[in-house]
Each structure stands twice: as C-alpha cells, then as structure tokens.
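Cross-posting from the modeling subforum.

Setting up a comparison between two proteins and wanted a second pair of eyes on the formatting. Protein 1 (sequence, then structure tokens):
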Amino acid sequence: MSRRGTTTGATATASTTTPTRRSSACGRRSRWTGTSCPPRATRHAASAPEPPAVANAVRQRTVRVNGVDLSLREAGDPGAPLVVLAHGFPETGHSWRHQMLPLAAAGWHVVAPDQRGYGHSSAPREVSAYGTDELSADLLGLAELLGHERAVYVGHDWGALLLWDLCRMHPDRVTAGVAASVAFADWPAPPLDIMARRYGDRFFYINYFQRPHEAETELGRDVADTMAKVLWGASAGAQADPMFFTRDELPPMEGTGFLTGRTQPPDLPWPWLDEYEFRTYVDEFSVSGFFGPVSWYRNMNANYERTRHRPVAAMTMPVHFVTGELDPVNLTNPAFDSSMRATLPGYRGSTVIAGAGHWVQQEKPAEFNAALLGFLSSL
C-alpha cells in the first residue's frame, strides 16, 4: 500500500482541532517566558511564527502521511533533491532553524517535520504508535508525498536513532545519512534489559521513562521550567547534569525525577538560544505534552526486535556522524568513531565540533552546517 498522503495549508486544519492541555504554570509569571501562561493553542494550528527574516523563505504546512498529520517547515525548490531533517528529544522541527536556508541555498529541497507526538503533529495515545516502524513510515511517506522514493536523512538525538533504524530496515530508500549526537550501536540484547541490569536501583532517565504516566506528568507540570533545565543541562554551558553521572554517583531511582537536582539555568538569552526561540519550544510542548516524546523511549526493546535480524552489512549508503566535543552522550562513549568505522560499510567518518554540547546544530550552527554541506557536496 502506498504511503502517499495529502497536504493542507496550516490554516485549513484549524477546524479539526482539540483543545490544548494547559500547563499548570498558567496563573503565575514564569522567569523563562515573561508571561503567566502559554497562549491558547490547538492541536493542528499553525506552529508559532518564525522571525520575519526566516518566515519569508521558510514555508509551514501540515501534511497527512501514514495515518497521521505532520506539521512541517519547508524551504527550497520542491523539484530539487530532498533532505529530511529529523529532530530528537525534546525538540521539534524548530531545532533545525539554522539549517533550513543554508540547505535551500545549496540546492536542496529541505523539510523539517514535527515528528509524531511533538509540536503540532498528531500525537496518538498508544505507546506502540511510537516505534521506529511507524516513525520510519512517517518519514518515508513524507518523502513519497513530496515525489521522492529516496532521500537524504539527517537526524539528531532520537532522530539519529531513527535514522539508523531507517537505514537498517529500508536501505533502498536512503540516499545518504548524517547522524548527530547518537552513534550507531548494534545492541547485543534488548537495550532496556541491559540498562535495567546496569543501573539497578539507581536513577537512569531511560529506565525512569518506562514508568507509565510518571515522566510525562513531571515534564508537563511546568513546561517552561522543564525546557529550560533540559536544554541548558545538556548544552556545553552545563556539564554537571545528574543524568550523566557515573552509576555510583547516581541517586536512587525511588524518589528521583528527571528534573531532580538539575542545574538552575541562567536567565535568557544564552549564547545559542534567545527568548523568542525558547518561547517557540515552550508553546509547542504546551500543545503536545510529553506522552508522545517519552513513548519513543518505551519502544526501545520493540525496535531492537524488529531490527536485530536486519544485516548491518546492507547499510552501504554513505553516512557521516557529527557531535559536539562536550556532548554528554559521547563523553560516555569515547569509542564511537572506531566502533562505527569497524561496523558500518558506508561510514565516512565523524566531525567533532569544539565548544558544542548535545544541541550541536543549534549551539554551533555555522560549524555544523559546514560539516553537513561538506558531506552532501561529496555525494
């Protein structure tokens, strides 16, 4: 069955909305937003407008693919080769704001969807709807809708994990790939089982995310506070985040939450994120909530089962890896380059960007874009 979908202008979908879940922060002033609560929004309403300089060249619309509505940002000639940008947690298509126009100027048709569960895209209420089988079908359906059987895919964080599974499950549909922050790993056993054994009764955020209702409730209690602490905590500016402590330093699982003990962020603006950009994230997560985003984590064992018999040797497409020198994910994985070099047939090396943390494409956009465009020009 074809995954080809339908497309509508953003305003055309507003009549099929459901009321947003209001943040409990409403009614009190937030130090992160300067306002008492997010503006009232609807599930499929248009995303928060970009600044004028970007809005003049970046188009926004909603498309229907694989049974869900995806809100997306788009730039470049629709007849040009396609690049699909896949964000991670907790991000939206907004996280690629610095890549859209440079890619379009380089001759690419570029799209950055809010992936399912995020922003103004559909957010199914079944955990199984967030496995990489459905997430891959979303991206492949999007490419097909835009007239492409094959495309270049760029993924950050969970978008990188999705990219690796996409390359493994559908190698014939991927022209090339760029993964940021999360390296390829061929797990020897179900990853959630490995993490449960490794951390035991100590707190580890992925294990915590497996608890029904608990994580999404905590994260949604004050969206502005959550986004400030998470975005700052994994950036180059803050490396004392408890999420990345060694096992012996981790607090007990019981009584500890995702935000417990996190570094208090400085006031905005930060060197890489201003008030407007931050506000866009807060508005988008005030619409979507966090059930969908944490449900991606709840599918890790199911993702393993659907990919473990797929040969890595079939992943012959060119792939490149980009990470920040201070990305806490790879500070705990120093062998990422040698491991991928030994494992992936199409591996074309890695770029480590000085002074960048986990949000590498946002923290150091010029350096990230140089690496990305350099790789794309070699294809």
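Protein 2 (same layout):
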Amino acid sequence: MTLRRSGLTSALIAAALLAIGLAGPAQAQWTPQSYFSPNGGGADATAEVIDNAQDTLDVAMYSMSTSGPIWNSLKAAIQRGVRVRVVMHKGHTSNKHKTAALEGIGAHVFAVTKTMHQKFALADAGKWWRRKLVNGSANWSTGAETRYSENTVVYGRHYHLFYAFQQEFNRLLADAKPLTPQAAANQEPVRLNKPSSRVRRYERAVFTSANFDTGTEVVADEIIALMQKAEESIVIDVAHFNSQRITDALIAVKQAKPSLQIEVMVDLGEYADGKSKVKQLEGAGIEVRYKTYSLSFLHPRSQLQHHKTMIVDRRDMITGSYNWSETAELRNYENVIVVQGHVARNKPMIEAFLAEHDRLWNQNRDRYAPFMAAMRSDPSDADYRRYVPIHFDTDYYRGPMSLTRSELRDLRSAAWAAGAFERQPNGKRNVEFSYLDRENRDVYRGNPPGTFIDLGNLNGATTVLSGLNNN
C-alpha cells in the first residue's frame, strides 16, 4: 500500500524574520537540509559544516571511521585552530586505534559509562549567526554513508534546538571521563543565553538523559502522544521495534481508528529477532515490510534500514538517534527532534522524509517474482540459475528488496531448500559467504558468471551501492 499524500537582539531579529514568513534567502537559514544514505551527500554536508567552523566543534558520536571526508575535515579544522571535543561511549573508546587516532589529530576525547548512541555535532556555539547543528540516524562511518539507509539533517539558525543540544552536550561532558590531561583542561561547559520566548519553536528536542534520574520515559511519551493524534496516516521507518509500550499504543491507535493507514518499514534483522515486536503489529493488521538485502542477516554484509523516524498525517515528524526499544529509552544517551510540519520552513524536510519512506517501502518489489523463479529453477529450465546470491551486494545481484513477512518467509524457505543455511565442514555458516552452488551445495566468494536475474525488463528503481567489498 502506498499512502495518499495531501497536499534588537538576535532573538528579536529571528522572530521578525519568522513573522514575515522567511521570504527570500533568509529562509534558507531556517530550512533544515536533509540528506539520505547510501551515497546521498550526508557525509559531504557534514564535512562542509566542519570546514566552515571557525572556533569550536562539539561532537557526540557512537561510531566514527578514521578515513573519508568527515575525518579529513576534522583534521583540517583542528589544524586551523578549531577546538574539537568528542564524546564517545566506553565500548568504542576501548578501541584504542580510534581513540589514539582522534587524540593524534588533536581532538579532545571523553568517555561516558552509558551507551552514547547519539550522532550530533554543534559548530561555533559562540557565534549565533554561524551556529550549525548536525543530527540524524547516521554515524560518521563508511557504512553509514555507503551502505545503510540513513538520514543526516543540518539545522541552521534553530536557536531553541541549538540551545537544547548544547545543554545536552554539557551534561555529557559532566558525566564523562576525559581520556587525556589536555581533554580535562577543555571539559568546561558552554554557557549560552536561553533563547527568547519571542522566537517561535517549531522544533523541539527530547533527550533520554532526562530519564536517568527520574525513571520516566520521555521519548516514548512523545512518540505515543504524536501517534495518538493521527487522523489519516502514520509512516514509521525504524531499525529496531522492541518497545512493548509503543507497540501496544500503536495497536490501540489502529483499533480505535481502523481506517488509519499505517506503514512500518524495518530492517531485515527484525524478522528473526526474538525481542522484536513487529509480529504483534502484523497480527493486529498493521502493514510491515523488511528491507531485505540478504537471505539471512549477517552484520558485516548488512545494508541496514537505520532510520528512526515517524511521520503523522504527512505533517508532523519525530526523528533522531532513538531506536524503539527499552534499551534506547532507559540505558542509552539518545535524542529525538519533534518537528511541526505546518510551518513553511519545515515542509521541505517532511516531504523529503516522506519520499525516502516511499522509496524504501516500494524498493525493487518488481524483482521479487523473477528472483523467486530463479531460486526455484531446475537445471532443465532455459533460465536455470545454478548460483544463488546469499547477500545482495555484488555484481551478480545487487539491490535490496522491500518484502512482507510472508514474502520473506517464502524466500528463506527456498533458500533453505537450496542449502543456504547449512554449515561447512570447518563449521563456517554458509551465510558467511557470497554465493551458493545449488548443484554441489558448496559456497564461494568469487563472482559467478552472468547475473542472477535479468533487470532489463523491470521498471523498479535499481539501488546502486558503491564501495562494497564483493568478498
């Protein structure tokens, strides 16, 4: 199903511009810029923010690659005198290579004891006219840019948002351990004046750090409150759907409003995850599709559906780093931004996220029938395919498909019959390889001849991924 789309001070200056509708070039300063992976420009946009930073850059990041445009921009920023502070979670700071690399380029690194799952950066806090906030689902990693379905959003003069995220970074610093004496000397918080109430708030940040001392569930509260307001539609793109409370709330909304159109797009890993609640959603008649990029989930070969977004009535949105799980709510540092879509400056972002959802929801669905036919072909058939792709990231077969549970079950059943889930004599699972030879039930990493299915007569969009290792 495809949803129907309906159609004096710095604060005072901002309020005045908002009041006149942000006409002309001024509006660009308030319109969030959205980028979608794979290869959608998010890393380059983040690098541009870093390149334009003049004084400070505060970063909270779960994972970071030590190569690529963002890393190169970090090095260049430090070399020209920008103070860069990075808060990571302790699991990643134990990776001495990455920690040493950050310290080696002159960054001040801090570790928090809880899982630091946020992915945001704040540039030039001391200059209101230069402030930029980068937030989203994407880590600063090669996988996030080239393989996964991610979002990165750059916010300009969003004063309330910047203030809220700077307060959150201050809290992270207060809870963190500096890893070097130089970092300890740069652990002071950034004090900003609270934005004037004259500046209207059309975006609002919520952080799970508010739960740690109170036992509350502030992000789940926001998600449930927004979905309960839905009158026409709810679209959800989320990597993990493990929260029983949110599950119960969504099912209750569907039962109270049977005509409500709900689409839930999740990652392949949710299909067989015992903690996932998506089977409950499906049992309640809610449509769920899985981004299917392998016969069986294997993280090193994954092309994750990594968004964490909900849009209600094609107007209001919640998006950020927060997976829909109790772990995210109670054990991680996470954030969401609640976006009001009725205001002109936010409409382009909402439309962009809706388009991303539609792309994922319908991705390569026209390939499913020929893929299954090739899986079930016999040696006597003219279009017989001896080799079966285990992961969909090579020249033999490239591109995820958006599948329902029943479609994915049939696909896996055919793969099981072909031997895809067996083990090799040395104990290695077949899913650790690239191809299965159905005739001798052996597995390979090299490219077999030809292609698995003929894409020439298909009308669906082809997903092109670059930078993947075919082995």
